[in-house]
Amino acid sequence: MSSRLRHPLTALFGGIALTLPWILSWLTGVNEGFSTLTTVGVAGVAVLGASFLLAWGAETAEKDVPRAFAIAVLAVLAVAPEYAVDALYAWQAGQGDAAASNLAVANMTGANRILIGIGWSGIALFSVYRAYSGGGADPNVVKRDGFLRDYVDLDRDISLEIAFLFLATVFAFFVPLGGGIGAIDTIVLVGLYLAYILVIIRGDVEEVEEQVGVPAYFQARARSIRIPVVLGLFTYSGLLIFTAVEPFAHGLEALGLQFGIPEFFMIQWIAPLASESPELIVTAYLVNKARSTAAFNALISSKLNQWTLLIGTLVVVYSISLGQYGVLMFDEKQASEIWITAAQSLFALAILINFQISVRESLLLLVLFLSQVITEFYFIRTMSEAAAEANSILLLDAFTVFYLVISVGLLAARRDQIREVATLTGATVRDAVDGDAEQPAD
Length: 442
Fold this sequence. Notes:
The chain is mainly α.
């Protein structure tokens, strides 16, 4: 279908339409009479629509604010739904709800693993599929002889993101050793993200590809129109997330109990999948327009955000709710969840360290992710709660070891690529520092 037949405002009104059932029912109080399933459906769809509106607002804003500032804003807005859900549980933990801290870890680890297991693998597979199906020539899709050896070639510019994500991933392995998420974790992880932003701000940031769709439409309008549109999108989306996330999360808990599924499993997989959907859909759209590199760069940046800010701010919200500084504690199961999430992240980085991701690597990422989730769900449905948890911990630890073994092997085989990433990252950092130092005084 030709994109010329689809006016950008159609997409905008479609995103707004997703939010109307919730906002109207919330304003009138009708939502108080909703069943649990209706609440989850209506609120979840509203969060989905709000995520689209947030993304479009941030992209449109790039026309009127410095590129580096726009990147910083987009970094936070890209994972706004995950922040909202996690902040809710961290806040409840501070109010004395012991189970809420586990749910905060569940949503955080689930969102991160979904982003790689489904997002990274799915976008790579879709890129190759589109190249073969006649959906448009994509210069970043390379056909290679051999079974499932075609791959997506990525820009070397993402070396900075790979390096910072690698540092955050290595540090994440040590988080469970303290029995919870504390101030040190916040300082290191948030500090890494701030350092990344400072490098971008001080560096010579290249212009991104031309916007398409809704952002392109509004960027072509006068500034007197763009600014109110951006502020309106931010305000309306923020209101939606503020009012819809809590009933959405509580509804998921109730549904999980109703169908015999633990809260942890529901919050870990269903809630993050809903909040990640806008990003996955948007990146799929970019691939559909033969912009696979742009799509993958967005996914990698989002992973960096979630693996630093999302984890690092949990203890801040928890401490504010508690009224004093406190460590967000979790048990053995949650420690295993963090370790497997870090191990999966390390494996994904080992794949991307050569700036390529092949069909077979994408399938391996997807199969490993799905097999762990499906097996754990089988435990939950066929075993007692205690037995299911014990077997789940063993399963998570086994997958963690497997991820680590293949990651170390892959990294050892790609030593030259590791040096290349380090060299490129070092050059980017030096250019940023030197550029700032050499800036002439007024």
